[in-house]
Amino acid sequence: MALRAFLPTDAWVRWLLVPAAAFIALAGNASYLADYWHHLARGRYIIEQGALLDHDIFTYTVADRPFQDVNWLSQVVYYQLHELGGLELVRVVNAFLVALTLVWLIALCRRLSGSLPVALGVGIAVFLGLWDVLTIRPQTFSLLLFVAMMDVLERSKRRPWLLALPPLMMALWPNLHGAFPAGLMLLGCWWLACVLGGSGAPSSGAPRSGAPRWTALASRLAAPTLCVVAAALATLVNPYGWNIYLYVGQTSSLAAARGIDEWLPPAFDQLSGLAFFASLPVIGALVVLAWRKRGVAVLSIYELALMVCFLPLACGSVRMVAWWLLVTAPMVARRIALLWPRTIDRGRAEPNRGAACSVAALLALAALSLPGLERWNPLRALRPADTTMAELDAAQSVLARDLDNGRVFSRFEWGEYLSWAAHPHWKVFMDGRIEIYPDDVWQAYATLTCGQAGWSKVLDDYQVDALLLDADYHRRTGLLQQVEQSHSWQRGQQFGRAVVFTRAQQWAE
After folding, report:
1. Terminal alpha carbon distance of the chain
2. What is the CA radius of gyration of the chain?
3. Within 10 A of 172 (CB to CB), how many other CB atoms are there?
4. Half-sphere exposure of 163 toward its Cβ, with a 13 Å CA cutoff?
5. Which long-range contacts (C-beta less than 8 Å, at least 24 apart) are formed by 144-147?
6. Which of 236, 255, 332, 334 has its CA 20 to 30 A from that of 393?
7. What is the DSSP code string of 220-239?
8. DSSP 396-433
9. Does 35 score more than 90 pLDDT?
């Protein structure tokens, strides 16, 4: 009996399941990172030069073009971590931040619904819906700050002093990632609910007897208004001031216009798309049922404002689905618990051996996802190793051996890694910073990638010295066949999918 008192309960398993699954999946994910390496390269420059990198140094197509680096602080963090423990440490820290975000969201849903099982179910749904964006990128910091903001605003109803935190968070956010407007939208919805008397208004004490109504309203809104104004002003604490808003808006519009996958509307062939489309009838049904059976308001002012703000964004871009899933999670959890009261936690869960075994297994798998231990992780066999990075390393080593420096063309996802591994000897045609490339460069890249008429002239105009083609991707697009048939290019070695081509000898002469 004494030992039993120290055994974990089912509640332990419910709290641990989603964050542990997220940590295990991400810490052990060795897939090629298409949106990480240029952040790491810029972080290296910032640390080594002691200055922000606000112009291009990695390409020959837009060399020296100015831009605003809204991710500079994330890049510094990534580079420092990489110097301490390599990519493995960066993976572990990123996985921990995602796990922290999810357990924080579950805690918020648990507090609002009173039901840990319901909060767990909602957490699982959100985790799956976020899967497409859960990689090593600055957006991880935005997701964590967004959930933290949701929690702070909810708690501020009972602890008004917490309203000092949103301005501090909004001062940090624009230096980590460009999604900080999502935090301002969240604050704006909360403030509107305060103005209209909906949920979200912090208690400011009872007004004096006989005080005018407008005085009472002003007293009630003083703290929320000060918080929102201070938070908006705090976003200007960045190297670019108010211009950062113009830059973020331009980047979003340009990425959507150019058909970048994550900026396209959600579709049924993506987990995020499936989660989004499934959420619509689920939320609708829960709202109607809670209204009819329990007399709950169809939507509070706060919930309605959130849906009006975030639903159109999610409809227009799969990248915005993340914010929709996060803001709707608490309202879904609350209504499920109201409709099915049996799910609400009652009493203290009893320790049991099954829960102890489950907790031990989750912790063991999490530990085996850490650097140096992953070789013994049984889940490793379920995910084949991605050899892209090793192939690119071998290919760029060959280029460095044959040519001291030069200009290389590759798909922009590979340009990311080359910007890190081959700089400053080799410059790339394009990397993942879509916003800095004008339309003519983007069209030239499309012409090359698809082997369209004029592809060879584009390479000549930009004086490209080498090609690093993807044997699978560029064969599908048609470029590989065009290059193989050209007398201007000589095929070199192939490393997995990475095929090296250099200018033919007669061209060099």
Report:
1. 87
2. 26
3. 17
4. 24
5. 144/97, 144/100, 144/101, 144/104, 145/169, 145/172, 145/173, 145/176, 145/183, 146/179, 146/182, 146/183, 146/186, 146/323, 146/326, 147/101, 147/104, 147/105, 147/108, 147/326
6. 255
7. HHHHHHHHHHHHHHHTT-ST
8. HHHHHHH-SSEEEE--HHHHHHHHHHTTTTEEES--S-
9. no
How many residues does the structure list for the chain? Answer: 509
H or E element at residue 184: helix 180-195
The region of weakest confidence among 67-81, 202-216, 327-341 is 202-216
pLDDT tens per residue across span 74-92: 999 999 999 999 999 999 9
Residue whose entry in the numeric block shows the structure tokens 């808003």? 245
Residue 284 pLDDT greater than 50, yes or no: yes
- What the block records as the tokens of 45 is 């420059």
Instruction: Decide: helix, strand or coil at residue 89.
Output: helix
* HEC letters along 248-277: HHHHHHHHHHCCCHHHCCCCCCCHHHHHHH
Q: What are the pLDDT digits (tens) for 425-467?
A: 999 999 888 778 888 999 999 999 999 999 999 999 999 999 9
For residue 132, give both structure tokens.
């497409």
Of the candidates 423, 329, 387, the residue with the CA atom closest to the CA atom of residue 125 = 329
Q: Among 139, 36, 130, which residue's Cα sits nearest to residue 78?
A: 36
Angle at Cα 311 formed by Cα 307 and Cα 317, nearest 5°?
155
Q: Which two tokens stand for residue 208?
A: 């004096």
Checking DSSP bridges between strand 498-503 and strand 489-495, what pairing results, if any? antiparallel
The pLDDT assigned to 151 comes to 97
DSSP assignment string, 295-321: ---SS-HHHHHHHHHHHHHHHH-GGGH
Residues whose CB falls within 8 Å of the CB of residue 51, separated by 6 or more in sequence, listed in order: none
Q: What pTM does this model have?
A: 0.91
Distance of alpha carbon 475 from alpha carbon 494, whole angstroms: 14
Domains, the chain, in order of start with CATH, read 68-205+214-343 (no CATH), 388-508 (3.40.50)
| Buried/exposed 405-420: b ≥16 CB within 10 Å, e otherwise | ebbbbbbbbbbbbbbb
CA distance 157 to 301: 15
Q: Are 174 and 235 in contact (CB under 8 A)?
A: yes
pLDDT of 260 > 80? The answer is: no
Report the 10 Å Cβ neighbour count for 51: 8
Q: How far apart are CA 73 and CA 138, in angstroms?
A: 9
Token pair, residue 416, equals 């990311």
